[in-house]
Amino acid sequence: MNVESVVPENGTPDYGASDNGAIIETQDLTREFKTVTAVDGLTLQIRPGEIFGLLGPDGAGKTTTIRLLAAIMDPTRGWARVAGYDTVEASEPIKQRIGYMAQRFNLYGDLSVWENLNFFADVFEVRGEERKERIERLMVFSRLGEFRHRRAAHLSGGMQKKLALACTLIHTPEIIFLDEPTTGVDPVSRREFWDILTELHLRGITLVVSTPYMDEAERCSRVGLIYQGQMVVCDTPEAVKAMTEGELIALWPSDVRRGQVILDELDGVLEVQIYGDQLRVFCQDGDGLMEQMRSVLAAEGIEVKDMRQARPRMEEAFISLIRRRMSEGDKS
Ligand SMILES: Nc1ncnc2c1ncn2[C@@H]1O[C@H](COP(=O)(O)OP(=O)(O)O)[C@@H](O)[C@H]1O
Ligand SMILES: [Mg+2]
After folding, report:
1. What DSSP string runs through 21-66?
2. Domains (ranges, CATH) in the chain?
3. I need a surface site. Which of 65, 144, 175, 300 has the fewest CB within 10 A?
4. Ligand 1, atom 2: nearest CA belongs to which residue?
5. Which atom of ligand 1 lies nearest, measured to the CA of 226?
6. Looking at the CA of 55, which ligand is closest?
């Protein structure tokens, strides 16, 4: 059995999309607290069936954004529409259509996997045969079948997240908001969790997922990078990576620290980052520079084991976009 049986077969019936085709739309969405502007003038459109990644470091405004979209919190300025409903005027119909998995989702530790699912079925008034079937399907879908009698408190971190997701899906929402569902989860479980999200995506569910892990952006149809409450960039992962300035060369010198200092001085080099035993050099023109790098390093007695052109990673693209943003801020 697979996700097919968890969500409707034709996953896009009544999405309440607005005229421009967006299922989630915000305009100048802003939330201020006493001393901070947690979300600052966010204008965004998400189409039905997208898997949208909300990326940003701690304190960037991810949780506040998701709470605003989930109609749990009201904006201090601007508006958001979800499935065609205004989040302030019509929070009830929104809550019926969405699933919201909070950063610290409240599972009941003393209850078993099966009992937790039943509890959330009660909350969402899922009853009778439908409830029994749905719980069985969700248990298989979330790969928790064999742990049905285990107390939630005794599940691993990764399994708790999967149970939380299953509970979030109990009322077959069209849109799900997941706030850092993979934070603190081991890499294997993270991957498995994303496989499950991808299955939901393939069934047409709209997903908005926040994460501090830049590599997870690769699994999204589009990503928005939030920094200090503002959207720095919003595009496909490929397009975001293409925004990195210049070309990138990866090399493995015998001494990365000295290598970094030496290459940083070289004309045409924009930036040198260390990744383990590897140097990542952003430069204007890779071709001419490769031989030059080899020879300046050799002159300092540093041997280069390997050198090649590379593709920028999401993390590098984001760091360079945030740097650019900060230096623009300094100028104004
Ligand atoms: N209820 C609140 N009261 C006051 N400040 C808050 C509240 N919630 C969040 N903030 C502040 O807003 C900013 C964004 O927080 P948050 O949305 O939780 O970011 P993230 O989820 O990206 O870590 C932070 O500076 C945080 O301290
Ligand atoms: Mg958060």
Report:
1. S-SEEEEEEEEE-SS-EEEEEEEEEE-TT-EEEEE--TTSSHHHHH
2. 3-235 (3.40.50.300), 245-311 (3.30.70.100)
3. 300
4. 33
5. 22
6. 1
Confidence of residue 17 (pLDDT cuts 50, 70, 90): low
pLDDT score at 332: 54
Q: What are the tokens at 294?
A: 């080899």
Mean pLDDT of all residues in the chain? 90
Residue 66 Cα: closest atom of ligand 1: 17
Closest CA to 11 of 20, 23, 26: 23
63 lines ligand 1 (CB under 6 A): yes
pLDDT tens digits for range 94-140: 999 999 999 988 899 999 999 999 999 999 999 999 999 999 999 99
pTM of the model: 0.85
Say whether pLDDT at 3 is over 60.
no
Helices (H), 70-171: 91-97, 113-123, 128-141, 157-168
**320 Cβ below 6 A of ligand 1:** no
The closest ligand to the CA of 54 turns out to be 1
Distance from C-alpha of 126 to C-alpha of 57, rounded to nearest angstrom: 37
CA–CA dist 101, 177 (Å, integer): 6
